[in-house]
Amino acid sequence: NNARFEFRPQDDSLSDFTSQMTKIVASSCNQRASEQIDRSRSGNYFDPDRAGEGIQLALEGDGQSWVITFYTYLDGEQVWMIGSGQRSGNTIDFGDVVITRGGDFGAEFDPDQVELIPFGRIILEFTGCNDLELSITSDLTQFSSDTRTLTRINPRDCT
Asked: Hey, CA dihedral for 32, 35, 36, 39, is it positive or negative?
């Protein structure tokens, strides 16, 4: 449930740094593979008509909590939206999606500089073993609400 991240860039303009990390949701480290939760829906998904934009979906170690990270753009700048939710049938409701900004890279990072901006809601529905639909409801005027069909970047064998 803990790890150390070491960054050793080849670019001399970037400095080395090390960071200690802890899982947001801890899990048992002593479970056999057959006892692990089914993470087959976790993965990276995108809309082939919108290459360069997509989501990363992860089931946490408690087997209940899902995390979505939506990678998109606004006015040519990267925007990351992050939310958590619970699955009910084939649907996950991420009702607390936020955009983060602030902070610095590397050793200069200060979590007190990170600002959480409420974005809105994303409802995800699994429509096949490699496909899903996102219903995006934005509370921010600069982002439009939308519905999108996404597929896995690396499809799984569905048999």
From this structure: positive
Sign of CA dihedral 152, 155, 156, 159: positive
Report the distance separating Cα 131 and Cα 25, nearest Å.
26
Count Cβ atoms below 10 Å from residue 13 Cβ, excluding itself.
5
CB-based burial of residue 28 (10 Å sphere; 0-12 exposed, 13-18 middle, 19+ buried)?
exposed
Q: Residue 159 CB: number of other CB atoms within 10 A?
A: 4
Distance between CA 58 and CA 9 in Å, rounded?
Answer: 27
List, for residues 75-86, the tens digit of each pLDDT value.
Answer: 999 999 999 999
Q: Which two tokens stand for residue 76?
A: 């040519």
Positive or negative CA dihedral for 83, 134, 39, 85? positive
Cα–Cα distance, 117 to 82 (Å, whole number): 10
pLDDT in tens, 91-109: 999 999 999 988 888 778 8
Task: State the Cα–Cα distance between residues 98 and 52, nearest whole angstrom.
Answer: 20
